[in-house]
Amino acid sequence: MTGRPWRPLTAFLTTVLALTACGGAPERPAGPAGEQVTAPAPPAFAITPSDGATGVRPDQGVTVTAAPGTTLQRVEVRAGGAAVPGVLARDRRTWRSRWALRPGTAHTVTATGADAAGAPVTVTGGFTTLKPATTFAVADVTPRPGELVGVGMPLIVTFDRPITDRAAVERALEVRMSRRVPAAWNWTGPRQVVLRPRRFWPPGQRLAFVAHTAGVRAAPGVYGAADTEGGFRVGAARVSVVDTRRHRMAVRVNGRVVRTAPISAGKGGTRAYTTTSGVHLVMGKGDPVVMSSAWMGVTNVHDPRYYKLKVRHAVQISASGEYVHSAPWSLKQQGRANISHGCVNASPAFAQWFYGQTLRGDVVTVIGTDRPLEVGNGWGYWQLPWSRWVAGSALKRPLAR
To answer: Quick one: which pathway (predicted)?
Structure first.
């Protein structure tokens, strides 16, 4: 007999079945009793940090992202019972917390919205931020909250330790103004940042300030401990000019000269006895103030340079000891000669009037001497032109308008 050898039918069927099993679509995994198991669908909203996370860096914040076909309607994040502010994108696909999170705190997240069919969807989660070993805080805010100040007043924020990541801290400083004007921060030292407008504040301006520094990472391992609030009100535009060559002082209120007076400025001869020229700000005042030659290192009563006396109605305009004050002993020289140790001497009547109506932050511009006011001499911040002032910002830009 010729042709192909005969093969049993069972062997043929076994081969066909084997080929089918190898080349066909994979079967779904079977559950108990052969039931098909369906892979879980991804959540409608992804929450970062993930649910149950611990030791979360507070400066990384919270993000909620909607899956394709879903939209966010509302996100509520709470930290120890307090609401965490955030921003929902216009396309309603993402939500992000506005500021750093509170360290060492349990957070809960509830995201609600709708799927592609419009059915409501809710996703929840929770996590805990790390408790830092080292913290920093705002040690002082000048001026005092709600204080009425002059048009030149800076906002001075001082921290309790040096700040390494100045940009991160600066981004956490929120300023709200009743009238929006260009203003910028400037780091005057490792622990201090100062806000100043491009030009003097407009009269009647109101400014609110919040340092959202809780959870901000200022240096490796160093996080902000708490937020701090402040703010002030601006009074009339009180700007005075002291002309040391003409020996006169003129006071303007809202652009109008309201009073002039003869004065006597620093006698010069040495740098210490020369009144500084430039834009000064009123830093404070006292009645009386004890003035002495100790600031020059002269404490021997037998030294001809020695002096110590109580001065009435003294208005401080620099950190180096310059005041506008009452000087009844120099009435004959006022308006004619400069004889003081650097202060602006005035008559008792004018000094009392000036003292009574002056606010911190009022402007006193001195002209006519060869010693410029140093930027770091008290509040000499207006000595810097605007471009150099902005350059001192860690972000290198004014506040967003």
So the answer is: Cell wall biogenesis; peptidoglycan biosynthesis
